Amino acid sequence: DGGITQSPKYLFRKEGQNVTLSCEQNLNHDAMYWYRQDPGQGLRLIYYSQIVNDFQKGDIAEGYSVSREKKESFPLTVTSAQKNPTAFYLCASSFGRADTQYFGPGTRLTVL
Amino acid sequence: GNSVTQMEGPVTLSEEAFLTINCTYTATGYPSLFWYVQYPGEGLQLLLKATKADDKGSNKGFEATYRKETTSFHLEKGSVQVSDSAVYFCASPSGNTPLVFGKGTRLSVIA
């Protein structure tokens, strides 16, 4: 089965700790994306990558970092510099930047 | 850049009622337009899309027509079911941003 997986579904961390969210796809897509979803605010783009070893900041990149060492994987690190990290994080992928994006099931991060 | 505005919810309808969720965009060109649906606790799923003026996207009884003259892409369904209860997002590319999303419209359908 082809698709996008995100793990874990729920994640709890103490304030001040960095945490890395996993995103893997086996759709052979070149482009991958990370979004943050807060109640009543829709989705906001954090980072995206169009190709391995390259990525661009989105609208709310501050306090986050990413890497793209493999085509299939695009992990997101929420650093202690992110002032309000509690949110629902969604990963997506597409063949190209202009193509339809397909989403993973999301990870709900709660910082205590 | 392009921005997307959709009607705010929540929208509550009885089963078999007609649904319209409005979406407008601001781009002067011909951006692709998308509707995504999010069921509780899940990621987004593509519902339908249109890539040029007058295109009609359709899926699962939902339809939306790309109207350049009104810069709109309203989502419609003739007879909603309880299983259609979800949050619906309109989206479109904007400049360097691959997709910008509306704030979402929560639909609740009651039996």
Description:
- The complex is a heterodimer of chains A (112) and B (111).
- Chain A is mainly beta and 112 residues long.
- Helices cover 0% and strands 50% of the residues of chain A.
- Chain A has no helices and eleven strands.
- The model of chain A has no long low-confidence stretch (mean pLDDT 93).
- Chain B is 0% helix and 51% strand.
- Chain B has no helices and twelve strands.
- In chain B, a hairpin with a 5-residue loop joins β5 and β6 (44-50).
- Chain B starts with a strand and ends with a strand.
- The chains are: A mainly beta (112), B mainly beta (111).
- At the A-B interface, β5, β9 and β10 of A face β6 and β11 of B.
Count up the helices of chain B: 0
Structural class of chain B comes to mainly beta
- How much strand of chain A? over 45%
Largest interface: A-B, 25 and 21 residues
Please give the alpha-carbon distance between the first and last residues of chain B: 41 Å
Largest sheet of chain B: 6 strands, mixed
What does the radius of gyration of chain A come to? 13 Å
Share in β-strands of chain B: over 45%
- The poorly predicted ranges of chain A are none
**Spans where pLDDT lies below 50 across 5 or more residues of chain B:** none
- Cα gyration radius of chain B (Å): 13 Å
Q: Kindly state the mean pLDDT of chain B as a whole number? A: 94
Major β-sheet profile of chain A = 7 strands, mixed
How much is the average pLDDT of chain A?
Answer: 93
Per the principal axes of the C-alpha atoms, what is the gross shape of chain A?
globular
| SSE series of chain A | EEEEEEEEEEE
Percent helix range of chain A: under 10%
